[in-house]
Design goal:
With about 180 residues, this protein is mostly helical. The chain has one domain: Four Helix Bundle (Hemerythrin (Met), subunit A) (Up-down Bundle), CATH 1.20.120.450. Strands 1-2 form a two-stranded antiparallel sheet. Helix 2 runs antiparallel to helix 4. The radius of gyration is 18 Å and the shape is flat.
Length: about 180
């Protein structure tokens, strides 16, 4: 992830949400179609189920973010873990719809909104707290998606960050770039 020094909490948060979406995008792209609905055991969720849950959460949390409780009355959270989408097209549609709503809400916020109070399940949160809550929730689930995709892809997996055994090479390249720009 390219880092940019900024004093804007909103800008930083939006960049991090984009980063985690991109990690998920790249993991989903590598996962074979049948892996999207596969489960490791009866207590595990498939990638499709995780995406369905994330999308439901995103819709509930970000729709009318500043004016309604983040747990919408029409949300069926338990249903998010049942009957997952069965095709890549359906999985990606839910994924994109959830993220689109997230970014629309985030990009409409201003610095003045950060201190406002919003509610999630009747519990008061500052806008900053709510953003942090969702950022950590989504990064947790993206990590699950990455882990599952990597498991199903096996030795053909293409690293999303620094490849195993390449840390020294990456650091040397970074340091060479720093030294040449001075």
């Amino acid at each position: 992830m390219a880092h940019e020094f900024t004093t804007s909490y909103l800008k930083d948060s939006i960049m991090l949400f984009h980063y985690y979406k991109k990690l998920g995008d790249r993991a989903l792209a590598q996962a074979p179609d049948d892996a999207l609905t596969s489960v490791l055991d009866s207590e595990s969720n498939s990638i499709a189920t995780i995406v369905k849950h994330m999308s439901g959460n995103m819709r509930s949390r970000w729709k009318d973010f500043l004016t309604t409780d983040g747990e919408k009355p029409d949300r069926n959270r338990d249903g998010e873990f049942e009957a997952p989408p069965q095709t890549r097209t359906e999985v990606i549609a839910l994924w994109e719809t959830g993220w689109q709503g997230t970014f629309v809400a985030l990009e409409s916020l201003t610095d003045e909104d950060l201190g406002r109070t919003i509610y999630i399940r009747g519990e008061a949160h500052s806008v900053v707290q709510a953003i942090q809550r969702q950022l950590t929730h989504y990064s947790y689930h993206v990590g699950q998606i990455v882990y599952l995709a990597k498991h199903y892809v096996g030795s053909q997996w293409k690293s999303l960050t620094v490849p195993r055994g390449k840390s020294a090479e990456v650091i040397a390249k970074i340091n060479a770039g720093r030294n040449s720009s001075r």
